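Hi Y.,

Following your request, here is the sequence exactly as I used it, all 390 residues.
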Amino acid sequence: MRLADFILQDTESILREWEIFARNIWPGTDSDPAELRDHAEDILRATARDMGSHQSGSEGIAKSKGEGKASAGSTRLDDASAEHGVGRVASGFKLKEVVAEYRALRASVIRLWRARVSDASLLDLDDLTRFNESIDQSLARAVDSFTERVDQSRQLFLGILGHDLRNPLNAVQMSAQLLSKMSPADTATSETAAVIDSSARAMSRMITDLLDFTGSGLGGGMPLERVAADLGAVCREVLEESRAAHPDCKFHYESSGDLTGHWDPVRVRQVVSNLLGNAVQHGASTCEVDLVLRREPTEIVMSVHNAGPAIPPEALHTIFDPLVRVVSPHLQRQRRPGSIGLGLYIVREVVQAHGGTIDVTSTEQSGTTFTARFPRASVVETQKKFTATE
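Below is the corresponding structure, written out as tokens. Let me know if you'd prefer a different format.
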């Protein structure tokens, strides 16, 4: 008996073994048989139909990598697998338990089928190959959907947490400021209030970064409120704040051309502040930072440069990714207060939300330079762009 025919004829016996295994690894105490089986029957039937469809050698290799799109059967298999992965998240499964289900399913099908087949043939070997390719495809799709749903849930939780922390944190800041005003002559009380206020401000920056991260990660992109603004004025304001915060550092500023356009000044301030803070943190001990703005025909180019240890070449392609740390001793300094490692990610998201790009170059000889390019969109162009995406 061909393997695909066996799967279709003996689906129930295979499902019974699936159900027994799922019950043994079930995360809760109660388990409904329908929930135990979930989309197993759909996966089995889609697998059998996919095995019966024509497939080239290259399509078989693609399917084993979870990239099978060759037939309607393959599409149905992907759909059932994706729904199964999402369903298992809702049931409280861990990823390793989803993988274990597929391992058990593969073993059950092959064992039960071999008990029905008396003599092996080349066709049987071909069937086994097709079956394993389909199961690999199904597993890959289930894992993808499982991890996507877990990531969405995690980001949603972090977003809610960040919002909920705002009110008590504001109360802490207001209390610290009030305490300082009530006892101006009491040095110890004033110093304590200042420490509380400083710590609360650092926590506020972390929450802001967290909310920006979760908001962009949930698919909404970095929200912008564009108004007519001068990037030069925005940069000078942030630069003065950085000079006050880092009196031992030397900040150099240059600008050229008309730097007006339609941007989100608050978001651009984040870009400048994060790039300057990054340069101070990872630059040379002499702490010299250059900020340069220049107008080009269709865009404003912003660059932030610092001397010091180079970023490892292998880290350059992931430096803007969230929560990725550069593995290098001289770059593993303690993060500045109020940072959770999302600064460069937020920089990239803000620049891209403006329709721009950002890149970085870094060598021991020339130092490190981050270059952001902001298109000079007019009011009309901006409105057209927003209308087209609504």
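The chain has three domains: 3-154, 158-220, 227-389.

Thanks again,
Q.
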